[in-house]
Amino acid sequence: MKVQTASMEQAQQLLQKYYGYPDFREGQRKIVASMLGGADTLGIMPTGGGKSICYQIPALLQPGLTLVVSPLISLMKDQVDALIAMGIPAAFINSTLSGKEANDRIRAARRGELKLLYVAPERLELDWFREEMGTLDISCVAVDEAHCVSQWGHDFRTSYLAVSPFVNGLPRRPTLAAFTATATPEVMDDMIRLLRLDNPSVFVTGLGRDNLAMSVLRGENKREYIMNYVETHGHQPGIIYAATRKEVDDLYGRLRQAGVPAGRYHAGLSDREREESQEAFLYDDIRVMVATNAFGMGIDKSNVRYVIHFNMPKNMEAYVQEAGRAGRDGEPSDCILLFSPQDIMTQKFLIEQNPQDEDRKRNEYRKLQQMVEYCYSTSCLRWGMLDYFGEAHDRTPCGICSSCRDERELVDMTVDAQIVFSCIHRMRERFGVSLVSSVLKGSQNKKVLQYGFDKLPTYGMMRRRTEKEISELINMFIAEGYLALTEGQYPVVRLQPLAGDVLRGKHQVMMRAPEPASAKGAGTSGSSRRARGSVYDDGPSAVNETVFEQLRLIRRDLAEK
Ligand code: ADP
Ligand code: MG
Ligand code: ZN
To answer: Disordered: where is this region (predicted)?
Structure first.
């Protein structure tokens, strides 16, 4: 252990000498110590957490070379340029080099003139490259963006599967370290299994950066919202993510027309156009980047003040990575997700379009559902995020997310909940949100009549609301854990134990009343978000008589059940 203590002191000196930082961040210190101790290490840290230093500093303290597997050519070049500028001997090998250039760099490594060599994962699949590497003294292999090895992740790269055979085929197995910002259990399992990390030390740190104000806004006029937001924050750098190229082009056009210095980025543009707009953004020549999720992996721009999602992403991992590009410098920043139910349809469509096996598909639907639950949640969004990623937290509300800042009063929604739950119960828990909504609305649609649901006591009990409002309400109950959806393309709503308690009158449902669609202004929040009571009905009192009569019947059903 003595050796390691000495090394940590050296590590800190190097951090000051080369990087000019007085100290490691807490997570970095643990990871560096683990790597210097020779253990395989898995470091999970949010975007901007400082993963690079975790392998760069140990690289300087180890006798041989550290090979860094990195997924993006542009990212590799940026990092190597930065290292060289600091006086650290580093190089990269990728497809932009000629054979001669690549060989020169390998020779330099063999002479011990390099501490870090960055390579694209595809290299590791090449026989000649593996042979060359076998002749070098490699102390450590660091795998950056390691979630790319997992099919459960959102950036699966087949060539990451070559990492493990490569490492284990070397004459002497180096220590292996993997880094990512993605911390779901499946992805973690995959990284350990597929990279064959040997009894690794795993470190997960701070997903909930407290400078980020997370918001989910439902039912906004998205375009207007964005135009207003950018107008009032136009001088600050920000990213707007949209689901499709078409949407990106449209928003980009509108912003340009309004005189906003905006750029765009998506896979339909040429490499050159993409590179130019990325550079322009990095150097603040443009302020707003409108992009699909093709933009951003490994972008090191610390002063992004906001990330707006024009559409809900497909899962929490993707969301956290994209939103996490805001505020990497620790300054207060906004992460705003503009949600509409149409986004769910879009994501389902994308899942269906993508040929894949059933297991994977089911998993994607499950993750999508968790993303939707996050969007409908009325409790602190940071809790929601930390809970999802399994990170421990003291249950103190963050105070700055849209749930924490929601000024609408909590209202007693017990009766609404009882109506919905009893309807689901009467429908034998065999149908999805939309049919339940149709029944509560009292709709005459074919399916309702075909099943005879127009004869149910709960039929039409929410006829004063739109079906959309009813669905939203049901989704809120799902997000709050009263109900659950089964997995798959056509999820069925099921009652959870808590719903039974509500039906039996043992549990009161306090929620922020959802707003009726009609009350929503065009894009402005403010006044439309004030407190209101049970807005989309005559209010509990008007329906109470019949409801309570029905509930007596339902309670009897339940007792018999
Ligand atoms: P990640 O790969 O985790 O997204 P990076 O390695 O790109 O993050 O680091 C993000 C930023 O944080 C960089 O600008 C980096 O220089 C800075 N940084 C990293 N470690 C420290 C530290 N100990 N003190 C101050 N700044 C740091
Ligand atoms: Mg990184
Ligand atoms: Zn909060």
So the answer is: 514-536
Ligand 1 atom 24: the closest Cα is on which residue?
21
Q: Among the bound ligands, name the one nearest to the CA of residue 70.
A: 2
CA distance 252 to 256: 6
Residue 42 and residue 150 in contact, taking contact as beta carbons nearer than 8 Å: no
Instruction: Calculate mean pLDDT across residues 134-153.
Output: 93
pLDDT for 181 equals: 87
Mean pLDDT of 188-210: 85
CB atoms within 10 A of CB 539: 14
Pick the range with the lowest mean pLDDT from 100-109, 205-214, 330-339, 456-465.
205-214
Tell me the CA–centroid distance for residue 73 and ligand 2, in Å: 13
Could you tell which of 207, 328, 329, 331 is best to mutate to test the pocket of ligand 1, judged by most ligand atoms within 8 Å of the CB?
328
Cα–Cα distance, 118 to 79 (Å, whole number): 9
14-42 b/e (C-beta count within 10 Å ≥ 16 → b)? bbeebbeeeebbebbbbbbbbbbbebbbb
- Per DSSP, the three-state class of 416 is helix
Q: What is the dihedral of CA 453, 459, 464, 468, to 10 degrees?
A: -40
Asked if 146 contacts 94 with a C-beta cutoff of 8 angstroms, the reply is no
Q: What is the mean pLDDT of residues 82-95?
A: 95
Cβ(130)–Cβ(166) under 8 Å? Answer: yes
| Mean pLDDT on 253-273 | 95
Ligand 1 pocket check: which of 12, 32, 51, 52 to mutate, most ligand atoms within 8 Å of Cβ?
Answer: 52
Residue 43: phi, psi to the nearest 5? -110, 120
Confidence class for position 550, pLDDT limits 50, 70, 90: low
CA 264, CA 368: separation in Å to the nearest integer? 26
The CA 332 to ligand 3 mean position distance, Å, reads 14
> Would you call 186 exposed, middle or buried from its count of C-beta atoms within 10 A (0-12, 13-18, 19+)?
middle
| Atom 27 in ligand 1: residue holding the nearest Cα | 50
SS3 string, 2-28, reads HHHHHHHHHHHHHHHHHHCCCCCCHHH
Query: What's the CA-to-centroid distance between 507 and ligand 2, angstroms?
Result: 46
* For residue 154, pLDDT beyond 50: yes
3-state secondary structure of 224: helix
Higher pLDDT pick, 442 / 551: 442
Instruction: pLDDT band for 473, please (50, 70, 90 cuts).
Output: very high
Mean pLDDT across the stretch 84-95?
A: 95
Ligand nearest to the CA of 216: 3
pLDDT digits (tens, 9 = 90+) for 291-337: 999 898 767 788 999 999 999 999 888 898 889 889 888 899 999 99
* Confidence check on the interface: ipTM exceeds 0.90, yes or no: yes
pTM of the model: 0.70
In sequence order, what E strands does 154-255 have?
175-180, 201-204, 212-218, 238-241
> Count of residues for the chain?
561
Nearest ligand, CA of residue 54?
Answer: 1
Please list every protein residue whose CB sits less than 6 Å from any atom of ligand 1. Answer: 21, 24-25, 28, 45, 47-53, 300, 302, 328
